[in-house]
UniProtKB/TrEMBL annotation:
It comes from the Eukaryota. It is found in: Cytoplasm. Its cofactor is Mg(2+). The gene is NOCT. GO terms for cellular component: cytoplasm. Phosphatase which catalyzes the conversion of NADP(+) to NAD(+) and of NADPH to NADH. Shows a small preference for NADPH over NADP(+). Represses translation and promotes degradation of target mRNA molecules. Plays an important role in post-transcriptional regulation of metabolic genes under circadian control. Exerts a rhythmic post-transcriptional control of genes necessary for metabolic functions including nutrient absorption, glucose/insulin sensitivity, lipid metabolism, adipogenesis, inflammation and osteogenesis. The keyword Transferase does not apply. It is an enzyme of class 3 (hydrolase). It catalyses: NADPH + H2O = phosphate + NADH; NADP(+) + H2O = phosphate + NAD(+). Residues 80-348 form the Endonuclease/exonuclease/phosphatase domain. One of its GO terms (molecular function) is metal ion binding. It comes from Hipposideros armiger (Great Himalayan leaf-nosed bat). This is Nocturnin. Keywords: Biological rhythms, Cytoplasm, Hydrolase, Magnesium, Metal-binding. CDD domains: Deadenylase_nocturnin (cd09096).
Length: 365
């Protein structure tokens, strides 16, 4: 290991382990200024691979080209949507069966999460179930050039788990060299006017290169069967909030989320038919361009096997084009024990798309 690599490794290990001697809850520890030196993503990726060398290799996933016919003078924006699986929920609430105990060890799982992010290098990262924001993702991603925002759930179920690391919530990161933050809103979702335990972050960003503005949103709706109407109400509230944010400005939208809803559910239909003219990016991977993937999460709980399509990237279909999308894992890659696994850290797959602005957006939101 060369000198600069060793220094990087030691800085990374320190950042990733800095809670051990702290008297404060880990999630409240602010990063030491020493850790704010920039990190080269390639070097950091190498370090992840070193730490993970005893694990099976990462799954190979390819980007599928979707629109080669719409030339754009600016580089596309890469958006990543991912429910990373809260550490406390994975260990204390999710009841995963057939999931080897080493799979859930945070000391290695965090490197797998980081490796997945570094492998695709998104310009914008929308995460759910983040319960290691302040001690892990904020300090590291800020050194990689990202601006981060975290909005915890008001009553996170993580807090019920012994040795938890604080509440889980949504996090939104964007690369500061590509975007300027124009406006940021933390939204506590309501259902039939009642405040709920689910949240969203909506940020208006301006592309430094093109000057174009858009609104990026991350959310995580209420889980579980029996809550379909509740999810639908939360979705309507989110749409109303986005309507208010974009009203008058007609800026394009990208909404990333774990909606906890199959495409047959009311909340999906509300988004698909909204006056905001949204479409779901991952449909474009299907043969007819009209079908969602067969699954975005696949796990075996003690209560049985759960294979569902719950995660989406919605976008303003007239103002934006999806240039490419990262394909999903095959059943064979996922394997018989499903997710999370030794080589994939979450029970949800990451969704990654490259977007470009269409040339004539006026009035076409
Ligand atoms: N202290 C207090 O006063 C309060 C505490 N709470 C706590 O919060 C919990 C509910 O919070 P809420 O936000 O509504 O939670 P949700 O029902 O939305 O689920 C929370 C998490 O559980 C995961 N999950 C989904 N299905 C299952 C399952 N079958 N088994 C295990 N985990 C699952 C979800 O993951 P995914 O999205 O990946 O499916 C999700 O991240 C309560 O159970 C309680 O623990 C809530 C309110 C008040
Ligand atoms: Mg979960």
């Amino acid at each position: 290991m060369g000198n600069s690599t060793s220094r990087l490794y030691s800085a990374l290990a320190k950042t990733l382990n800095n809670s051990a001697a702290s008297q404060h809850p880990e999630y409240l520890v602010s990063p030491d200024p020493e850790h704010l030196e920039p990190i080269d993503p390639k070097e950091l990726l190498e370090e992840c691979r070193t730490v993970l060398h005893t694990r099976p290799p990462r799954f190979q996933r390819d980007f599928v080209d979707l629109r080669t016919d719409c030339p754009s003078s600016h580089p596309p924006m890469r958006i990543m949507q991912w429910n990373i699986l809260a550490q406390a929920l994975g260990e204390g609430k999710d009841n995963f069966a057939q999931c080897p105990v080493e799979t859930l060890k945070w000391e290695e799982r965090k490197y797998l999460i980081l490796e997945e992010i570094l492998a695709y290098q998104p310009d914008i990262l929308c995460l759910q179930e983040v319960d290691h924001y302040f001690d892990t993702f904020q300090p590291l991603l800020s050194r990689l050039g990202y601006h981060g925002t975290f909005f915890p759930k008001p009553w996170s179920p993580c807090l019920d788990v012994e040795h938890n690391n604080g509440p889980d919530g949504c996090a939104l990161f964007f690369l500061q060299n590509r975007f300027k933050l124009v406006r940021s809103a933390n939204i506590r979702l309501t259902a039939m006017t009642l405040k709920t335990n689910q949240v969203a972050i909506a940020q208006t960003l301006e592309c430094k290169e093109s000057g174009r503005r858009f609104c990026i949103t991350v959310t995580h709706l209420k889980a579980r069967t029996g809550w379909e109407q509740f999810r639908s109400a939360q979705g309507s509230d989110l749409l109303q909030n986005l309507q208010n944010i974009t009203q008058g400005t007609k800026i394009p939208l990208i909404v990333c989320g774990d909606f906890n809803a199959e495409p047959t559910e009311e909340v999906y239909k509300c988004f698909a038919s909204s006056s905001l003219n949204l479409d779901s990016a991952y449909k474009l991977l299907s043969a007819d361009g009209q079908s969602e993937p067969p699954y975005t999460t696949w796990k075996i709980r003690t209560s049985g096997e759960c294979r569902h399509t719950l995660d989406y990237i919605w976008y303003s279909k007239h103002a934006l084009s999806v240039k490419s999308a990262l394909d999903l894992l095959t059943e064979e890659q996922i394997g018989p024990n499903r997710l999370p696994s030794l080589n994939y850290p979450s029970d949800h797959l990451s969704l990654v798309c490259d977007f470009s602005f269409n040339e004539e957006p006026d009035g076409l939101l």
